[in-house]
Amino acid sequence: MKKAISILMILAMLLTTASASISATGSSEDASAASAAAASSGDASASSTSDASSPKEEAVYGILEHDGSVKDLYVVNIFNNDGSITDYGSYSEVRNLTTSEKLVSDGDRITINTTAKKFYYQGTLQKKELPWEIAIKYYLDDKQVSAGELAGKSGRLKIAVSVKRNDKANSRFFDNYALQIALTLNSRLCSDIAADDAVIAEAGGKKQITWTVLPGQGADVSATANVHDFEMDSVTINGIKLAFGIETDTDMFSGEISQLADAIKELDSGAGELLDGLIQLSDGMRKYTEGLKAFNDGIGQLSAGAGQLDAGASALRDGLQQLAGQNSLLMDGAYAMQLATFDSVNAQLKAMDPRMPELTPENYNEVFSQISQMPGLSQMPGIPDMISDVKKQLDGVVQFTQGLKAYTDGVAQLGAGAGELARGAGEFSSSAVMIASSSNELYKAAVELDSGMKKLREGLAAYKDGTKKLRDGTSGIDSEIEKKVDELLAGIMGTDEKPASFVSDKNTNVAAVQFVLRTDPISTPKAEKAAVQEPAELTFWQKLLKLFGLYRG
User: Model-level pTM?
Assistant: First the structure.
């Protein structure tokens, strides 16, 4: 996609650079004299064959007062053809600057028949309105003074220039022409020179201060300096149509722009996939946190139960230990009762028959079995019943003693088991407390992680919104860049419309218009010099230099 935008800056014609230094002596009388001197011999012919305006260029020269108001306006009309020339303009006076042929004025219509290949004539405009309203103010030590009061003075100088649209003139020039405002300060008379937004250049012992005002823009600019015996050259203002035309090949970066747009699309798609994955991860994290909370609550209950179990086991151990402490007393009593019972039975049996053996818990069953089998004893009245009753009595006391022994042994074993149980319950309770603490920390960490996941999810969602906006915004970016380039260049150079005549709308074939404006210099009065006799005949270039105030003879 190639686009050619003209980059030609139509610079001032007829030595525009030189015209920036036009001397301050260019009053209307001087211009008239210069015009007369520039005329060379030739035959005049004032016939016209057509009412259509001839192709031309216009150079508008303005002499400004020190305050920027217009004193005189002149237009030099330039034609690049010989023969019949027709032009239009409301002039108070016209001057042939090329030949001695006569210009014919009929109202606003000016005609001539010329043999010159390049023809110039000057017209003094009746209407003194520029497209710009220019105001120049001078301050010395912060007090506003006139230019006349400033000459030869010393102090802190400030020169302020204001440019605005002049609603009394055709706005197309304000909207489409750029201005170059220039001040020239003598470095010998001025020091500490400063000017914002200006280009300051050294040229032959002088500082040239230049501001550029773009089409359609006003300006409020100023320069400051310390001065003594102050004098200054003219303030010059040049106006030109910026017909920019850069040949811009946007193909050289359109590929990169397309790659960038594609990369943004991929970035947006990747952000979407990442967001989807993060949403799933966030949901899983939420469920994990909820499950961990239930686990943590259960572990807390387990820890509390383990504490209760530990307390119960300790109480059981202590109780059994106390009970086991009574075992020896119980067994001693049981053994004493058993011994007393056997002693009583043995005494009774000995009384009946001294041959009766000694009964003990270990042998009484066998002895009674033998007694019951003795001949004749079983037939003795009351003996079998007595033996049976005694055996039952001995069985009861032996069984009691053995049962109590089993009981006390069980109590001792239970006491030992309760001790082991209490130790295990204590360890389990300690472990449960540690597990509960770890579970609580794990749950807190999961809550923080879940919170961070939610923030990350929100941030990534916002990022995804941004990538979508970026993707939507970069859609068609190549054409948008081209449009913005056009808008930017339009803001710099104005519209692309055809140049129009400053003098008259009837001049429909104008190739270019430029403005060269200047004030008179500020200078102290000097002794008058003797008039220098000029040569009788001047060359064409001498005439032009004299017209611009540059010819010194």
Answer: 0.52
